[in-house]
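Job type: complex structure
Entries:
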Amino acid sequence: MEIKVKTTHNHQMIDITHDVENAVHESGITDGIVIIFNPHTTGAVTINEGADPAVISDILKSLSELIPGHAAYNHLEGNSDAHIKSALMGSDRVVIIRKGKLLLGTWQKIFFCEFDGPRDRKIQLKIIAG
Amino acid sequence: MEIKVKTTHNHQMIDITHDVENAVHESGITDGIVIIFNPHTTGAVTINEGADPAVISDILKSLSELIPGHAAYNHLEGNSDAHIKSALMGSDRVVIIRKGKLLLGTWQKIFFCEFDGPRDRKIQLKIIAG
Amino acid sequence: MEIKVKTTHNHQMIDITHDVENAVHESGITDGIVIIFNPHTTGAVTINEGADPAVISDILKSLSELIPGHAAYNHLEGNSDAHIKSALMGSDRVVIIRKGKLLLGTWQKIFFCEFDGPRDRKIQLKIIAG
């Protein structure tokens, strides 16, 4: 199972919660876990507040203050900051499935993080029953 | 399965290793994995040294130096730093279960991270046999 | 299953992808997930670009700029920075196994991160079929 995402900005967080929910629903698995895996070295997957878009803009702004886009990097493709942000945020998350639903908190949404867009991206999913 | 935690400070790391161990013991599952999932957007789950409490105080202090509590944030609830720290530390961890025990390192403990307390919190657990 | 790593520097990222691939191959499991768990409180596991070694040197350099080796830390063993970096990078990663192969992106490799070496380290693996 795979989610396709087309990012439109250089830095962006895109809510993929509904896509993950749909994949879980289609699998027919009602109890277990779902692994959300980002295969891109300049992207990441994270879980945070989806209600106020200011939260994700603060996360992206803070990351760029910590990891500047231009600095004395060794990697010459101009996207070292994106690789470092990817490492800090993490490639994968695991969410519990209970009674057919994602066991997320009230305010939690699952986001694909783009740090070197715009690009066509895909996110891999795997559901394990249990 | 759910662990309830009552935090007493604004920033705090609470050792929940025994609660996770108890849940694994009660499940009767001796080989597999346990997912420790934090459903709060201003909390996190991490694994680090539990022997010297100075380690966790250094982690919290360093995070607050990197992500100040008060800055030019867009989110107006006054807890943007907590959301950003939650994103950096991560919502979930996976620990291996072998012969009925958590396969943690000698010095490792599992911590719930509070970044916007004091609050009543809960952590979700899921055990997968395998 | 266990991967042994002998680090040779104080800070180092070591590509363990082939070891994880070998363990998956030997397990005979063709579909599921593999958990890569670091049991050391001054190490981590991360997934990032393996093609250009400048990427991992930029990650290590950037981490050390954010978390200096010497600062007003409470922990007196002189390796507080290593514990903090371990917390930021994370103790574990989960990779999907499909048709007997790790479902990594084109440029992704799995790295053990050493932040307090040189040391003899081990990484625990667990494969769950599904």
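Summary: Residues 2-129 of chain A form a domain with the Jelly Rolls fold (CATH 2.60.120.460). Chain A has one domain: 2-129.
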